[in-house]
Structures are given as structure tokens and as C-alpha cells.
């Protein structure tokens, strides 16, 4: 039954890919196949279902921000975090610079937007930025249960070459003391994290751990504490789709995180992790067909948490 639902949902919503556009501000992403659409469902009982382009690789992009955030929460108290980054929703785009100057005592509003995610990396345990990066990459590998996950070098170089908005955000944060480390090294770690290549299966598997209160699906071992899972799901709900988070909470109602590579990682607590991929994006940088597929699935399976 689930298999039929997934296949029909993809078919019914594929036309939405024509309404959006692939990201072009990172030139390498503009090469993506615009009508690709895939889904992978990983239930907490271990059952898996997949349809469409579920095995097509794409870069994780901003979905890596939840893994950096998990590491930050494991390595710091919430009060230490709040001195640098808060968890307030933003009504501006993911790479907006304006709030850093005008709001929140120069702290990034939340860890899901670019400024907050760049600042988060510095708070992760590690003597060097390389060690901090490795810690986050290893967390992605362990939560997805895929030790082979690695960076897409072409996307990484493309990001590094063209990432001037992120440079502006990071240097501004250095000027206000939010960032204390070497900005170029920090950005290098950020660009690499965004360029990590995954499939729907990988992100669904990460989501399944969050859906399972932080315990591994196969062995039940605690990978993330229940308390941290709650914090991450709360911030995903309020900030995970940027300025689209409110509408998404109404239409889908499932804690989620999007990326400009076209992925959406969605967590249905106690039930399943879902990974969707469709590189055609809406104006806010979220997968246009991916959101529609998740809306339809959430309605059919009654997944909204509200
Ligand atoms: O830094 C950037 O702009 C990208 N590497 C990531 C942005 C992103 O994924 C926003 N997501 N919807």
C-alpha cells in the first residue's frame, strides 16, 4: 500500500517541477536535471519504501545545518549557544544579511539560515576547523549509516569560487565578535559541508533516527539524546524552510529541513524519516515539487504533528 501511495504521489506532483527553477547562484547546481523527483521512506520499525529518483545523488546543502546544530548541542550548553546564535524564526531569505546589523545584538537569528550555520561550526568540538568539519561529517555518516558519504568536489569548488554572500556574512560576524576564528578556514568547512553528496536514502535514514528519539534503527543505540532531538525538531519546525516555514507548518506540519540541492529531510516523530529530492526550487529556495509531495503524503498518512 505504501509503495503505491509513494508512486502515485510522485506521478501526481511531477508537473510542479516545471513551475520552479534549479539553483544557479552556485553554477555547478544549474547542471541538475530539473524534472528529477524521488522519495525514500524509512520507518522506525525498519521497513523502507522508495520511488522515483530516490537513488540520484545530490548535494546536501542546508540540510547539513541540522547535523552541525546537533553537534553544537552535544558540545555546548544551550546558554553558551544563545550567547552567539538564537533560535528565532526569520522572515527573510536564507542568505539575508540585514538582520545581522539591525536585530538580536548582531547574533544570527537561528542555526538554519546561512549566518547561523556558519557561526555554528565554530562551536563544534575540535582543536582545528578541520577537526570540527570531520566531526560533523562523521556525524552525517553515522546517522545515515553510510560510511562512504563524501564531498562532491565540483560543487565544493563552485561554492568556494562564488560564495561571496557567505563571505560577507562571515566577515560581518567576525567584525561583531560572533565569529572569533579564521574566517576563510571556517567558510571552507561550511562550503565542504554544503557540498556533501547524499541520496534520498541517506537523508531519510538520518530523519529516521530523529523520528526514533535519537536511537539507531538497527541496534537501538542512542546516537543523539532525546532532549537534543526535541530541540532540533522544534527549530526545524519553526526555521527549517526559512521564511517558508510558517506556510509549510500549515500545509505539511512535519519538522523538516530543505537545501538548495533540492533535498528535503522530514521527520514524522515516532513513525518515519522521509527523504525527498527534486532540484526545481521555489522562490524561497525550497524544492517546489518536494513540498507538494510532502503535503500530499502528510495528508494521506495524517502525519501533521499539529
Ligand atoms: O550557502 C549557500 O547558499 C548554500 N550552500 C546552501 C543554501 C541552502 O541550501 C538554502 N536552502 N534552501
TrEMBL record:
Gene Ontology molecular-function annotations: glutaminase activity
GO biological-process terms attached to the record: glutamate biosynthetic process; L-glutamine catabolic process
Subunit (UniProt): Homotetramer.
UniProt name for this protein: Glutaminase
Enzyme class: hydrolase
Record field: catalytic activity: L-glutamine + H2O = L-glutamate + NH4(+)
EC numbers for this chain: 3.5.1.2
Source organism, top-level taxon: Bacteria
UniProt keyword terms in alphabetical order: Acetylation, Hydrolase
Signal peptide boundaries: none
Residue positions binding substrate: 62, 114, 159, 166, 190, 242, 260
Record-linked NCBIfam families: Gln_ase
Family: Belongs to the glutaminase family.
A Pfam family that the UniProt record links to this protein: Glutaminase
Amino acid at each position: 500500500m505504501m509503495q503505491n501511495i509513494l508512486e502515485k504521489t510522485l506521478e501526481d506532483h511531477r508537473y510542479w517541477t516545471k513551475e520552479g527553477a534549479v539553483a544557479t547562484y552556485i553554477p555547478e547546481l544549474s547542471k541538475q536535471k530539473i524534472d528529477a523527483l524521488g522519495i525514500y521512506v524509512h520507518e522506525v520499525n525498519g521497513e523502507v519504501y522508495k520511488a522515483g529518483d530516490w537513488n540520484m545523488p545530490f548535494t546536501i546543502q542546508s540540510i547539513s545545518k541540522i547535523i552541525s546544530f546537533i553537534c553544537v548541542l552535544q558540545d555546548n550548553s544551550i546558554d553558551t549557544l544563545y550567547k552567539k546564535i538564537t533560535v528565532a524564526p526569520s522572515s527573510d531569505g536564507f542568505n539575508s544579511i540585514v538582520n545581522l546589523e539591525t536585530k538580536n545584538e548582531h547574533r544570527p537569528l537561528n542555526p538554519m539560515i546561512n549566518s547561523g550555520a556558519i557561526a555554528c561550526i565554530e562551536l563544534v568540538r575540535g582543536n582545528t576547523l578541520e577537526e570540527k568539519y570531520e566531526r560533523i561529517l562523521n556525524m552525517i555518516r553515522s546517522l545515515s549509516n553510510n560510511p562512504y558519504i563524501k564531498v562532491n568536489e565540483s560543487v565544493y569548488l563552485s561554492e568556494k569560487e562564488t560564495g561571496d554572500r557567505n563571505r560577507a556574512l562571515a566577515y560581518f560576524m567576525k567584525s561583531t565578535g560572533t565569529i572569533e576564528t579564521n574566517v576563510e578556514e571556517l567558510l571552507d568547512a561550511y562550503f565542504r559541508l554544503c557540498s556533501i553528496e547524499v541520496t534520498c536514502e541517506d537523508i531519510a535514514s538520518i530523519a529516521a533516527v530523529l523520528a526514533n528519539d535519537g536511537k539507531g534503527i538497527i541496534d537501538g543505540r542512542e546516537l543523539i539524546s532525546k532532549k537534543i532531538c526535541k530541540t532540533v525538531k522544534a527549530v526545524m519546525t519553526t526555521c527549517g524552510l526559512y521564511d517558508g516555514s510558517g506556510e509549510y507548518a500549515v500545509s505539511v506540519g512535519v519538522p523538516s529541513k530543505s537545501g538548495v540541492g533540492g533535498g528535503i529531510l522530514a521527520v514524522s516523530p515516532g513513525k518515519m524519516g522521509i527523504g525527498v529530492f527534486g532540484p526545481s526550487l521555489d522562490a524561497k529556495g525550497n524544492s517546489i515539487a518536494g513540498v507538494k509531495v510532502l503535503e500530499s503524503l502528510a495528508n494521506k498518512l495524517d502525519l501533521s504533528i499539529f
